[in-house]
Amino acid sequence: MRLFCLPFAGGSASAYYNWSNYISDMIILDPIELKGRGKRFNEPFYSNFEEVIEDVCCYISDTNDNNDYAIFGHSMGSLIAYEVYYKIQESNFKKPKHLFFSSYRAPHNKKNNHINKLTDQDLINRIRSLGGTQEELLQNEEFLDIYLPIIRNDFELIDSYIFRKKANQILCDITLLYGNEEMLKFEDMLDWQSHAQGKSTVYELEGNHFYINNNVEKISDILNRTLLE
User: Fold this and answer.
1) Is the CB of residue 27 less than 8 Å from the CB of residue 227?
2) pLDDT: is 125 or 70 the higher one?
3) pTM for this structure?
C-alpha cells in the first residue's frame, strides 16, 4: 500500500516527512512535491488548477505501477485529492482504495480567499491566523520573500477553482479529519459525505488548522488502522 500525501497552500512535501517514523512499514509514504517549492523550487508556478491536477495524476501513474494506494490531502491538498480522483477515473488508471480529506470544506462549499485584494501584510495576517507558522518567520524578510509568492499563487489557484458536480460519487471509503480549534466545524466536514458512496469516518483531533503538526502519532494510528485492517 502506497500513501500519496498532498500539501496545504504554501506547503511542501517535507510537511509529511516525519510521518515515516510512525507509519507502518507496510505503507510506503510518498509525499508529492508541487511545483515552485521544495525539491521543485526552480520550476515555474502552475497557472491554473487543472495544471496541478494533471501534474499530480502524472506523478501517481508514473510512480505506482498499478499497486494499491490511498491519497491524503490537507487543506488545499484535499481539494486537489478530490479532483485527482476523478481525473484518474477518466484515464482508467487504478483508482485509490481510500481518500483522506483533512481540514477543508467539501468542494461545493469552497470559500474564496479573495487573494487579489490582499496586500502582503493582509496575507501575513491571514497566515498568522491559521497558525502553524512561527512568528519569527513571519517577521523574517528573507523568508517572506520566498514564501509569500508561493502561498499567494496557491491561494490564487484555489480562488480560480470552479466546482462542477460529478456524474457519480466517489466509490471508495473516505476519512475526514480536522482540528477542534479551527474555524471548520463538524458539520462542515460532514458535507463531504454527499460526495461519497462508501463509508465515511470523521475524526476531530486537538489543535488548530495545523493540527497535523502536533498529532503525528494519532494520525499515523488512524492511517495504519484504516489502510491495513
Assistant:
1) yes
2) 70
3) 0.95
